[in-house]
Amino acid sequence: MESSLQLRNAVVQAFDKHRQEDNREPMEKYLKNHFPFYGIKTPQRTKLLKEIFSDFINLSYTEKVEAAYLLYIRYCSL
């Protein structure tokens, strides 16, 4: 669980650091404000995630699923 939490925290920190307020509002409006957005477009988001995942390459499938669940809980409660 600790590795899953570290992965979750790495994703959250990277997204917070690269937040793009100029893009956030139009993205939220596009989906009728049902979801919060960081305003990070797909190419940059993909690059960030690739970098993060390379640091966590040895995680088991279960740990990756736990990390996904932790992210889901974090963002569904906003």
Task: Give me a quick take on this structure.
With 78 residues, the protein is an all-alpha fold. It is built from four helices and no strands.
Question: Could you explain the architecture of this structure?
Answer:
The chain is mostly helical. It contains four helices and no strands. The chain has helices spanning 2-17, 21-30, 42-55, 61-76. Helix 1 packs antiparallel against helix 3 (42-55) and helix 1 crosses helix 4. The longest helix is centred in the first third of the chain and has 16 residues, at 2-17. The chain is globular. The model has no long low-confidence stretch (mean pLDDT 90).
What is the topological layout?
Blueprint: H1 2-17, H2 21-30, H3 42-55, H4 61-76
Count of helical regions: 4
> What percent of residues adopt helix (DSSP H or I)?
over 70%
Net shape: globular
Beta-strand content bin: under 5%
N-end to C-end Cα span: 22 Å
What is the average of the pLDDT values?
A: 90
Strand segment tally: 0
Pairing-aware structural class of the strands and helices?
mainly alpha
Radius of gyration: 13 Å
The arrangement of helices and strands along the chain is: HHHH
Poorly predicted regions are: none
Largest sheet: none
